[in-house]
Amino acid sequence: MKYDIIVIGGGLVGASLVTALKDSDLTIALVEPHEPESIPQDASWDNRVYAISPGSAAFLQSLEVWQLLTSERVTPVYEMAVYGDDSCAHINFSAYEIGLPELAFIAENRQLQAAVWDVLKSVNKNIHIICPAKCTSINWQDSHVEVLLDDGRLLEASLVVGADGVNSWVRNQAEIKVSRHAYHQIGVVANFSVEVPHRHIAYQWFRRDGVLALLPLPDKRISMVWSVSEEQANELRSLSAEALCYQVEEASSHTLGAMQLITPAVGFPLNFVHVNQLVKPRLVLIGDAAHGIHPLAGQGVNLGLRDARKLAAVLNSRGMQTDCGHLMLLRRYELARKEDILALEMVTDGLQKLFNNSNPTLARLRNLGLEITNRLPLIKNQLMQHALN
């Protein structure tokens, strides 16, 4: 079974890359162990949501994916209010200030996954979805790559794309070195209905016990991401619904009034992962396989979608280069993505370390930094412009 490209991992980033190549002359196999879960025909909400930047939304729209989302379940963000860990420090971001309709869109993971797979399944000419299937070995040759599946099938391609997550099996097989450290924090997520309308504002508090974000959902609902120590995360997840609501109300200074729990609290461990190289001969890494950052900036999925967007652009504009796995071609992708990835790694890791520190001098400096930045429109606009891509 011969292809030009084998993409291993059918999450949002991997599936978006394949969709972006659907009109190319390349033959592509997408290997994924599990199909996305079907969307329940009820009023329930996914407790995993993404803040999709306008640039990512435009990319998904160009793939005819964004149009398939249920518009009533997608919420535009017009403003963002960020607070320090004292009673005064804050910074505000506004779409109006930079002449844009919105800063981001909040969308459910399951809606996005289902939409991109619906588009993929409608393409018959050059895309082969192999699911459910798991890879058991990869053998790199000078001219091609061989991928063995758990059912005995042998696939061959000029290029393998690893889109299989932060603990990437593909990356390990390629022996690509990573620098990683655990934050010893858990991202606790849950959804709530609230008493006070959120007015399409995303809130974030840099607290001494972690980072709390409340993201607007349709009507008077919000999605919470609270990055806290492993011990505190266990405590939060063990609370009754009423007790958890009270804790979040207190931590958010009662900004949105009384809360009611919609989805139970769940958690995921937070780690920093820096990949030393994004490409090797006949191999590319994208998405969480290529980087792992703290969720405090809400940019993880957008970083991955920018990977998919750039790699698709490189492959679609390769010109006379018939070998899509040639290292010189893949270097174009790596050079284009390294600066963006490194910048977000440094910012998110630096902010996590800065605010996860009890030193009183640092506390004064970080809160002063928020206030100074809030009074400098040029710096604020530069920060927003990067996040809008």
**N-C termini distance:** 37 Å
Number of strands: 19
Shape call: globular
Please state the structural category.
alpha+beta
Stated plainly, the CATH topology is called: FAD/NAD(P)-binding domain
Set out the fold topology.
Elements: E1 2-8, H1 12-20, E2 28-31, E3 49-52, H2 54-62, E4 75-77, E5 79-83, E6 90-94, E7 104-108, H3 109-121, E8 127-130, E9 135-140, E10 145-149, E11 154-162, H4 169-173, E12 178-194, E13 201-207, E14 210-217, E15 221-229, H5 230-238, H6 241-251, E16 259-275, E17 279-280, E18 283-285, E19 291-292, H7 300-316, H8 327-355, H9 360-374, H10 377-388
Provide structural commentary.
With 389 residues, this protein is α+β, with helices and mostly antiparallel strands. It has a single domain, classed as FAD/NAD(P)-binding domain. The chain has helices spanning 12-20, 54-62, 109-121, 169-173, 230-238, 241-251, 300-316, 327-355, 360-374, 377-388, and strands spanning 2-8, 28-31, 49-52, 75-77, 79-83, 90-94, 104-108, 127-130, 135-140, 145-149, 154-162, 178-194, 201-207, 210-217, 221-229, 259-275, 279-280, 283-285, 291-292. The strands form 3 sheets. Strands 1, 2, 8, 9, 10, 11, 17 and 18 form an 8-stranded mixed beta sheet that branches. An 8-stranded mixed beta sheet has the order 6-5-13-14-15-12-16-19. Strand 17 (279-280) and strand 18 (283-285) form a beta hairpin. The longest helix has 29 residues, at 327-355. The mean pLDDT is 93.
